[in-house]
Amino acid sequence: MFELWVYVERVLGTCTSHVPMVPGRGFLVRNGRLSFPGGGPVCIYALQSVLPLLPLKERISDEEKNSDWLWRVHEAQCPDPKGRVIWRIEQRPPKHAPLPPATVPAPAYGDLRVSVTEVQGTCTAGMRSGHYALVRGSSLYLPQPFCLYALQAVLPQLPARTRPLLPDDWMVSENKVICPDPAGNVIMRIDRVEDD
Prior knowledge:
Elements: E1 3-11, E2 26-30, E3 33-35, E4 42-43, H1 44-50, H2 54-57, H3 69-72, E5 75-77, E6 85-92, E7 112-119, E8 132-136, E9 139-141, E10 146-147, H4 148-154, H5 158-161, H6 170-173, E11 176-178, E12 186-192
Antiparallel strand pairs: 1-2, 1-6, 2-3, 3-10, 4-9, 5-6, 7-8, 7-12, 8-9, 11-12
């Protein structure tokens, strides 16, 4: 397997993320876990465009160049046509050096916290109760590595949950999401910070 360094290669428009994405900002994928240098942030909308490519890019190595488009693709674009943030995906030989500690801002009113509340099986990505991610505006911060599959399960709900919800919205009473890996059964809870 490869280690991936995913970073902003160029911005062809104006990024309107809570913390605008700039060239050089990026994250590491190591054995199915995402790590942000310094804790982040990364735009949650851009991350949704990049995430589906990562499990395959960790593994592709010796296929015929013409056998699959993914072998040739090394870039992904954020979905905002005004921002046009281009992300580069670099495959690197795996390293085992520890990651530098993350510094994540203190949560503020209106932020979201995605917390691992329970691991009912064996999580191969090392997720444990207490691991969390913080969402501020459209920016995602990770104080520790976070499983990319668990993140894919929770990410589609985050933009809606950052906004006020109507009392009869199912998201008001249902705030738990389970990782798609049945061996891990990692349960995550999404809370607005004022609900903590």
